[in-house]
Amino acid sequence: MVEIVNSGEQVTAGIVGDIDHHTASGIRTEIDAVLENTTPQLLILDFGGVKFMDSSGIGLILGRQRVLQSFGGRLFIKNATGHAEKIVKLAGLSGLMIGGGKG
Amino acid sequence: MKYTTKNHFKMMIPARSQNEAFARSAVSAFAAQLDPTVEELGDIKAAVSEAVTNCIVHAYADNIGMIELVARILQDDSHDSAPTLYIRVKDKGCGIADIERAKTPLFTTCAEGERAGLGFAVMESFTDRLQVRSKAGAGTTVTMYKRLETRSE
Ligand SMILES: Nc1ncnc2c1ncn2[C@@H]1O[C@H](COP(=O)(O)OP(=O)(O)OP(=O)(O)O)[C@@H](O)[C@H]1O
Ligand SMILES: [Mg+2]
Question: Which of B68, B88, B115, B147 is catalytic?
Answer without folding.
Answer: B115
